[in-house]
From TrEMBL:
Pathway where this protein functions: Isoprenoid biosynthesis; isopentenyl diphosphate biosynthesis via DXP pathway; isopentenyl diphosphate from 1-deoxy-D-xylulose 5-phosphate: step 5/6
Positions that bind [4Fe-4S] cluster: C312, C315, C358, E365
Cofactor descriptive note: Binds 1 [4Fe-4S] cluster.
Broad enzyme group: oxidoreductase
MF (Gene Ontology): 4 iron, 4 sulfur cluster binding; 4-hydroxy-3-methylbut-2-en-1-yl diphosphate synthase activity (ferredoxin); 4-hydroxy-3-methylbut-2-enyl-diphosphate synthase activity (flavodoxin); iron ion binding
Protein name: 4-hydroxy-3-methylbut-2-en-1-yl diphosphate synthase (flavodoxin)
Named cofactor requirement(s): [4Fe-4S] cluster
Originating gene: ispG
Native organism: Advenella kashmirensis (strain DSM 17095 / LMG 22695 / WT001) (Tetrathiobacter kashmirensis)
EC number: 1.17.7.3
Described purpose of this protein according to its UniProt entry: Converts 2C-methyl-D-erythritol 2,4-cyclodiphosphate (ME-2,4cPP) into 1-hydroxy-2-methyl-2-(E)-butenyl 4-diphosphate.
One GO term (biological process): terpenoid biosynthetic process
Lineage: Bacteria, Pseudomonadati, Pseudomonadota, Betaproteobacteria, Burkholderiales
Domain (IspG TIM-barrel): residue spans on this chain: 29-293
Length: 395
């Protein structure tokens, strides 16, 4: 066989789609979404916002796990009343993260009746499908945008297939029935999601909201729908986009579905902030969604958050759980140390650590900039592992 000489074949370029940049400001700090900024990791609490202590504690946990924005639901007057207290509690605890208010149905009332809540939040999420119908809907939307303009807050116009504007959908279904070859209902739904997001963004601009204070999202719960909707949305506007597969589910199903959808879009440069909508196990840790979001971005080479642990799956050469325990404890240790190491050792988050069940692939891993630990055979002897360091292992 003749091997034809090739030129080097490149890996994906990961060129980001150009967008406007929206600034989310709190205290004297800011995080930028889009406009060339790194993809922002965000999360959402599941506490009752009317309980300021429980909510502040969970916001702190999410921020410490690496969430760069935290969304809280603001659904009742009791919740809106406590938002300033949550902000103050976070400031007292030294938790520096912006709060995003999630509004449905009554956001226009809460934002106008509780101006301190409107001020304490750094960004509002508005769902145009949950604001009533007809003129009432237009007035409610205008009222929320007017508050955003008054306090100079950016807004995410977050459309969701489960709460899509009924009137828009009905109108588009009627129009579709008059087509010579009607689209199928799911194609009309996808188009309605995009149209709803874009037309509401245009309306917000007409009402005076700056074009660089708008972020869009169109969330659906099926992977192929999400990819199709965001490809279309990104081709039709230059607003920064919030990516997430809604109702992704629990455990490995939720992680796999979110990763499958978001990876395709991020690879195409689409997406400026991400949230992973995992259902926690009963009593499970809410911070899991932050770690998954970070791992998606880091494994794709888009950002670095914590040293990545590469571990082999093990095989017949491994005869105990020693290397699994080693991999697990190293991974936990690295994540625990990051708040301190990040300040002490700039660049440490880009380090790789490989934990191998035996020396078979250890030398290969050490060619890369990696700290390698490989168990010696016979592994059950628990001899100290073989250690090797790639040439650029440490920054
Ligand atoms: S590194 Fe060794 S133990 Fe791990 S899968 Fe490969 S051969 Fe098996």
């Amino acid at each position: 066989m003749t091997i034809v000489e090739q030129s080097p074949f490149p890996i994906g370029q990961l060129t980001r789609r150009p967008t406007r940049g929206a600034r989310v400001v709190w205290d004297t700090k800011q995080v930028q979404i889009g406009g060339g900024a790194p993809v922002v990791v965000q999360s959402m609490t599941n506490t009752d916002t009317a309980d300021p202590i429980a909510t502040a504690i969970q916001v702190k946990e999410l921020a410490q796990a690496g969430s760069e924005m935290v969304r809280i639901t603001v659904n009742t007057p009791e919740a809106a009343k406590e938002v300033p207290a949550i902000r103050e509690q976070l400031d007292r605890m030294g938790v520096s993260v912006p709060l995003v208010g999630d509004f449905h149905y009554n956001g226009h009332k809460l934002l106008t009746q509780f101006p301190e809540c409107a001020q304490a939040l750094s960004k509002y999420r508005i769902n145009p499908g949950n604001m009533g119908g007809g003129k009432k809907r237009d007035d409610n939307f205008a009222q929320m945008i007017e508050v955003a303009c008054r306090y100079e807050k950016p807004v995410r116009i977050g459309v969701n297939w489960g709460s899509l504007d009924h009137e828009l959908m009905a109108r588009m279904m009627d129009d579709n029935s008059r087509r010579s070859v009607p689209w199928d209902a799911s194609a009309v739904m996808r188009e309605a999601l995009v149209v709803s997001a874009i037309t509401n963004a245009a309306r917000a601009e007409e009402l005076g909201l700056a074009g660089d204070a708008i972020i869009l999202s169109c969330k659906v719960s099926h992977v192929q729908d999400l990819i199709s909707v965001y490809r279309n949305l990104s081709a039709r506007c230059d607003y920064p986009l919030h990516l997430g597969l809604t109702e992704a589910g629990m455990g490995s199903k939720g992680i796999v579905a979110s990763t499958a959808a978001l990876s395709v879009l991020l690879q195409e440069g689409i997406g400026d902030t991400i949230r992973i909508s995992l259902t926690p196990e009963p009593g499970g840790d809410r911070t899991r969604e932050v770690i998954v979001a970070q791992e998606i971005l880091q494994t794709m080479g888009l950002r670095a958050f914590t040293p990545m642990v590469v571990a082999c799956p093990g095989c017949g050469r491994t005869s105990s759980t020693y290397f699994q325990e080693l991999a697990d404890s190293i991974q936990s240790y690295l994540r625990r140390q990051m708040p301190v190491w990040k300040a002490q050792y700039p660049g440490v988050e880009s380090m790789n650590v490989a934990v191998m069940g035996c020396v078979v692939n250890g030398p290969g891993e050490s060619v890369m900039p990696t700290l390698v630990s490989a168990c010696r055979a016979p592994e059950r002897s628990r001899q100290p592992p073989f250690l090797s360091m790639g040439s650029a292992a440490l920054p």
